[in-house]
Design a protein that fits this description.
Keywords: Cell membrane, Membrane, Transmembrane, Transmembrane helix, Transport. 75% of the residues lie in helices and 0% in strands. The chain is mainly α and 684 residues long.
């Protein structure tokens, strides 16, 4: 129930997305019913496929879908013209086209075009099997093109006119949201009231969302493209503020001194001014010496000093020059014609679709042709991803079928106008749209929910109470899912179980890189830039690990092929996450205590960071097989930490902040030792 509540919880922009779906759907239903445009369920599904998280993606997806639909219809017409009297040749030609389309899907950034061509060309074969006259068959193919393209154009228009989600505005909103989190933490310290700790996942997602919005903003707005360097610097600084707030949320609540109260008030005022400047799109403020030159005497002071430097970095970003135009990357991947996995993937997909096609043709059960389409829909590079999509497809179809069944029995017999049809349909579409506007874990359930209902109740121009469509579609999906997953499991399976270990190894190496970051830099700005880059890489790899872990858990037979791997890696990933946060905290402490560090202490810290990085890299080697032996332990291995301990016991005036530096190093050492002990157990 907790997962369901999380997935269905409202978030900024979700209600507006649902309203756009409902408006576009209502227009499509009225137009198709009034003008008797066939294939209304197909038109509705194009609304959901076209509408994306922002206007740039919506426009790009619409263009790709129109191109793919046009190419597919042209190829379908050519196949009908030249192979209508040769069934075997027609099927073989469709298989070749589908193979090429699925191969193109794996090797190109525009792979959606190949995917749509493969799907539709195979779908057209079910039209031929209906025994239609050549003229009727050609008309059906042309109507498919009309039924697909006009909803795409209509959806793009609706998304640009009604509550448009432009990437530039989304970027500003997300920056303001993260700044509000910082303000809330500062307010909690001023009021001495407890606050909820900010998790590492929230910090990682926050910075990745900012970069994602910036990518699309530069594609849709020339101003953002020209000022890309300034926006990148601003994002890096806000990430530093957000990360510092996360560390602040973990510190124990303690009474503030008068100087600290003044510092917190000054930081809050500057953060609020920054948030207001972003909201009004005015010049960003350039604060100087927000917390003065008071020496760092505690972990709390280190966080405040980090926030000050982040605010100063935002002000300095205003002076950055215009960014040069980026060189466009190629459309094809570098190993497009060398990697055999691409051809194997395409062949598996065509084989699964052919098995379903032969089956429903042999048993003369045309109603379950959705089994063939399911094989293409579930065609994803990872077996875990295919299983996840298959599960969401079945759940969505089952829910939509139940709603369609209830409507067919109790409501549809009483409808006599299109107004009544809209009153029945639009609330159902709104429910499906609410789910479809959610996270990738469950959004496909919403799409299938609406499509299953539409196939049953919107496939004709008059009310229908025929329930066979509901039954046949559900059976077809189950057959297609079983065949597709069976073929993907037994023939050239692309499992991610081993890839998960390699991904965790990359994460540990990125943590090691963050530990070393800036050690070879003497300039403060260069050192900060190196730390920011290493931290971003660590957050990105952390999220990739979590997403891959969720996919692996859905792979058939993972608990046999990777016995005890997933539970062990789950714990290792959690410990690697804590190590990432500990390294980041050590870097923050060093950044603001560095100039005042005694030379001998600075050397000991450098030695400790280097040793910690070596240990992390050894652990990474344990996961990806690139390192088999543990670093040799000698008495000198513990010298850096022992030297730090001796500094922490210094009774001088700097004892407090020296203690915090050593404490940060000790926390990191403990996190690494926990991971080390995990790897020493047989289960790891």
């Amino acid at each position: 129930m907790g997962l369901i509540r999380t997935e269905l919880a409202p978030f900024p922009g979700r209600k507006e997305a649902v309203l756009r779906f409902v408006v576009a759907t209502a227009l499509v239903i009225v137009i198709s019913m009034a003008l008797e445009v066939p294939f209304l369920p197909l038109s509705l599904i194009m609304v959901f496929f076209t509408a994306q998280e922002n206007t740039v993606l919506t426009r790009l997806s619409g263009i790709v879908l129109v191109i793919g639909a046009t190419i597919a219809v042209v190829i379908g017409l050519l196949l009908v013209k030249f192979t209508i009297n040769y069934p075997m040749l027609r099927i073989l030609a469709a298989c070749v086209v589908a193979f090429c389309g699925m191969y193109f899907m794996r090797i190109s950034k525009l792979g959606a075009i190949g995917y749509l061509v493969a799907l539709l060309v195979f779908y057209f074969q079910s039209f031929v099997d209906l025994g239609l006259a050549p003229e009727s068959l050609v008309r059906s193919l042309l109507w498919v093109w009309v039924a697909m393209t006009y909803p795409i154009l209509l959806t793009i228009t609706v998304n640009f006119v009604f509550w448009p989600r432009r990437p530039a505005r989304l970027l500003n909103d997300e920056m303001r949201r993260q700044l509000q989190v910082v303000l809330d933490q500062l307010d909690a310290r001023r009021a001495q009231s407890p606050s909820r700790p900010i998790g590492t996942d929230a910090v990682a997602k926050g910075v990745l969302v900012l970069h994602r919005h910036l990518v699309f903003a530069t594609q849709g707005d020339e101003t953002y493209h020209r000022d890309r360097a300034r926006h990148l610097a601003c994002i890096a600084a806000i990430d530093r503020l957000h990360t510092a707030a996360a560390h602040l949320s973990r510190l124990p609540m303690a009474a503030l001194s008068p100087a600290q109260e003044a510092d917190v008030a000054a930081l809050r005022a500057h953060c609020q001014a920054l948030r207001d400047a972003i909201a009004t799109r005015t010049a960003l403020p350039r604060p100087a010496n927000v917390v003065g030159t008071r020496p760092v005497a505690s972990q709390f002071d280190s966080v405040l000093r980090e926030m000050e430097h982040a605010l100063q970095a935002i002000g300095e970003a205003e002076a950055l020059p215009a960014s040069p135009r980026l060189q466009k990357e190629g459309l094809l991947s570098g190993d497009a014609f060398q990697n055999p996995a691409y051809g194997q993937f395409a062949l598996k997909t065509v084989l699964a679709a052919m098995i379903c096609y032969v089956f429903y043709t042999a048993v003369q059960w045309q109603g379950i042709h959705t089994s063939m389409l399911t094989c293409f829909i579930l065609a994803l590079p990872s077996l875990g991803a295919s299983s996840h999509k298959g599960l969401t497809r079945i759940i969505g179809c089952a829910l939509g079928s139940v709603v369609a069944l209830v409507a067919a029995i109790f409501i549809v017999p009483h409808l006599d106008s299109i107004a009544g049809l809209l009153v029945l349909t639009l609330p159902i579409v709104a429910v499906g749209a609410w789910i479809a506007a959610g996270s990738p874990r469950t959004n496909y359930i919403g799409v299938q929910f609406v499509f299953a209902y539409a196939l049953s109740q919107l496939g004709h121009f008059a009310p229908t109470t025929d329930l066979t469509e509901i039954r046949d579609r559900m059976i077809g999906i189950l057959v297609g899912a079983v065949v597709s997953i069976a073929v993907s499991t037994w023939i050239w399976p692309e499992r991610e179980g081993d890839a998960l270990k390699r991904m965790l190894a990359r994460l540990l190496r990125s943590v090691a890189g963050l530990a070393r970051a800036g050690s070879d830099k003497r300039d403060t700005d260069a050192r900060g830039a190196a730390v920011d880059k290493a931290r971003l890489q660590g957050w990105s790899l952390l999220m990739q690990n979590r997403e891959m872990q969720a996919r692996v858990a859905l792979e058939p037979g993972w608990h046999y092929d990777h016995d005890s791997v997933t539970p062990a890696i789950t714990r290792s990933l959690a410990q690697a996450q804590e190590a990432l946060l500990a390294v980041n905290w050590l870097q923050i402490v060093l950044a603001h205590a560095g100039p005042a560090l005694p030379r001998t202490l600075a050397q000991s810290l450098e030695a400790f960071r280097a040793h910690a990085a070596i240990r992390l890299e050894w652990m990474a080697g344990r996961f990806d097989g690139q390192g088999a032996q543990h670093p040799v332990h000698t008495a000198n291995d513990t010298d850096p930490l022992r030297a730090l301990d001796s500094f922490a016991m210094d009774p001088g005036p700097d004892a407090d902040w020296l203690h915090d530096v050593v404490c940060a190093a000790r926390v990191l050492d403990e996190r690494i030792s926990q991971l080390d002990r995990r790897l020493a157990t047989p289960a790891a």
